Amino acid sequence: MAKTDTKAHAIERYGLSDEQLLQMLRNMLMQRQLDNRGFQLNRQGKVPFALGSEGHEALQAGAAMAFHRGKDLLAPYYRDLGLALGIGLTPFEIMLSIFARADDHNGGRQFPNHYSSKAAGLLSFSSILAAHIPHAVGAAYAIQYRGEHGRAVLATCGDGTTSEGEWHESMNFAAIHRLPLVMLVENNEWAISTPLHKQMAQPEIWKRAAGYGMPGRRCNGFDPIETYGAVSAALERARSGGGPTLLEGMCYRFLAHSTDDNDMTYRTKEEVAEHRKMDPVPRFEAALTELGVIDAAGIDAMKKDVLRETNEATDKAEALPYPAPSDLYTHLYEGAWQPWQ
Amino acid sequence: MAVSTTSSTVMNNVEAVRATLYEAMKNDDRTIILGEDVGARGNVFLITKDFINEFGDRRVIDTPIAEASIVGIAVGMAMEGLRPIAEIQFADFIYPAFNQIVGEAAKTRYRSNGEYTCPLVIRTPYGGGVRGALSHSVSIEALFYHVPGLKIVAPAFPADVKGLLNAAIDDPDPVIFLEHKKTYRLIKGEVPDGHYTIPLGKANVLKEGTQLTVVSYGLYVHWALDAAKQLEAEGHSVEVIDLRSIRPMDKTAILSSVEKTRKLLIIHEDNKFGGVGAEISAMVAEEALFSLDAPIRRLAAPDVPAMGYAEPLEHEYMSSPAKMAEAMRALVAF
User: Fold this and answer.
1) Domains of chain B, CATH where assigned
2) H or E element in which residue B188 lies
3) Would you say B149 and B173 are in contact if contact means Cβ atoms under 8 Å apart?
4) Tens-digit pLDDT profile for residues A40-52
């Protein structure tokens, strides 16, 4: 890709237009606003649980921009709000999930942030870590088997998930069959309370790619443009028959694991504060300002618009009904069902 | 059973599985077989012998030795429009795939509120009597029949193997298809030609009788029939029901028989404690207690992990036509 020189100095843009860069910024601001809203609603006693992906915003906004809507499939995990938004889910859909309303894709059955949308190409997943990675591999196999060139599967997980056997089995199988798969590991350094050094002796996850016989690469997940470049190249490789890639995006989990976690029991305020200096949201605001893509007034207007949309989505979702008690019994199998016939 | 032709062929159970899989591969190119040694080796029982030559290695996948992902990848294929038939080489090896079966396949439709489905068949040889020792002989149905979202089938006869496997392959939800390996070559029978299905959840009354109902499935169905015939020779009338499906299970067939005979013996190879017989017993106690003239009796495996390799250990673990006849006599006389 040609570098586009603007204003102060060269920033590699990987062909991203101003409009795309602004979409990425809006995605990041929306992630932060919706995360915040989930935690607020929990503290207000309106929802029993919320999860946040603060610190992952840039990584996810960049990765989502590389996703081809209507073509690619996404197999995400529960800390992927920005990916879900970035491939087309709306804040309203996210709020339906947070409020566990009947109109939620999962019908209010799953925890919040367990995104699912067949229309968007987003594969349903559970809370069981790495269980979705073989599904991504199976879906990639189906794409390859049907000869659907130009399609690929983007699978994501955290660093913690890479310890699971199913993760390893999936990487191995994907490499054997040169499947159209990109495995993006969002390394935020923490598996709930377990730091990286207790998860693995060799902390550079991307290096495992060599062991599977696929390319591996690490990117700065605090930089959405760099992440876009890495994911875009890997997806393009997968779409064109080049096989799978293991990517590791470096980020950090600014919040506790969930509203039920107290991260001060295992890490310090100082550590979190130190990483806050890398906060991708103000960094990207500054980068786009420097590029001349937006100015302070524009950012302020965008934040107001994000808050407006979040408020509207919140109110609209909250006003909708829960699933009916009788909905407990639907969609177990096709058709009516009793274990006794 | 909807049979499209009156002609038939004599097959054993292994041939019936093979013929049915072959038909499925021929008829629908969404059908993919994946498992350990299913390709060039043609499966350890030669069920898929030569399939790889005819259908290619994209449809007959020799997987790495990794059961969790055999099932997990099949789940992903099923979610994305294929019709995978995953093989677990021996039922004893299914434990690493437990999460994918129970946590994922069984819940795919439910957790997505019907947006995603998981039309998947997991075939696996199970059961003992073949000197299979602790890890090539187990029955696994009780571990899975507890799980909403799954269907479980365990046919005993070649014609049922074909009809039920066809139904399992056509089914839009995950089905565990259990093949008793002692019956693979031991049991032969007429198998109707052409495509037909037998609905999941329908038991089969193999032998009518008036004094006692015997409910079983798998290899023990054959032994129970032998024992019932022995009782017949002694002047007693025993009804034998082959469950065929374990989830869903045919309550109607069990209750209508028990209400007639007023006595119930449940026989299975799996462990007694928490086994399929426990659920049947509870159901009959709830629904037909006052039809019973004797306590419900279960003849099932002792509370040990599995049968030992040494012949006396296998023999002690397993039932036999003689032990079954003894249990039948005791109940008839009660």
Assistant:
1) 9-192 (3.40.50.970), 204-333 (3.40.50.920)
2) strand B188-192
3) yes
4) 999 999 999 999 9
Q: Report the alpha-carbon distance of residue B27 to residue B20 in Å, rounded.
A: 11
Question: Measured between CB atoms, does A328 come within 8 Å of chain B?
Answer: no
Residue A221 CB partners (closer than 8 Å, separation 6+): A56, A58, A59, A62, A186, A187, A227, A249, A250, A251, A280
Report the distance separating Cα B145 and Cα B151, nearest Å: 8
**A138 Cα to chain B: minimum distance (Å):** 4
A176 interfaces chain B, CB cutoff of 8 Å: yes
Residue of B61, B100, B112, B256 to mutate, testing the A interface (most A Cβ within 10 Å of its Cβ): B112
- Which of B77, B172, B251 is the closest to A341 by Cβ? B251
For B117, the token pair is: 């489905």
Which member of A137, A176, A331 has the closest CB to residue B76?
Answer: A137
Give the residues across from B188 on adjacent strands.
Answer: B12
Comparing CA positions, the residue from B172, B208, B211, B204 lying closest to residue B189 is B204
Tell me which chain B residues have a C-beta less than 8 angstroms from the C-beta of A339: 148, 247-249
Measuring CA to CA, which residue among A114, A62, A126 is closest to residue A287? Answer: A62
A92-106 pLDDT tens trace: 999 999 999 999 999
In chain A, the domains with their CATH numbers are 18-322 (3.40.50.970)
How many beta-carbon pairs below 8 A join chains A and B?
Answer: 156
Taking CB atoms and an 8 Å cutoff, what residues of chain A touch B252? 341
Specify the pLDDT at position A11.
78
**Complex ipTM tops 0.85:** yes
Of A273, A213, A265, A203, which is closest to residue A242 (Cα–Cα)?
Answer: A213
Q: How confident is the model at residue A9, as a pLDDT?
A: 52
Can you give the pTM of this predicted structure? 0.96
B315 is an active site residue = no
Cis ω on the peptide bond leading into residue A180 (within 30° of 0)?
A: no
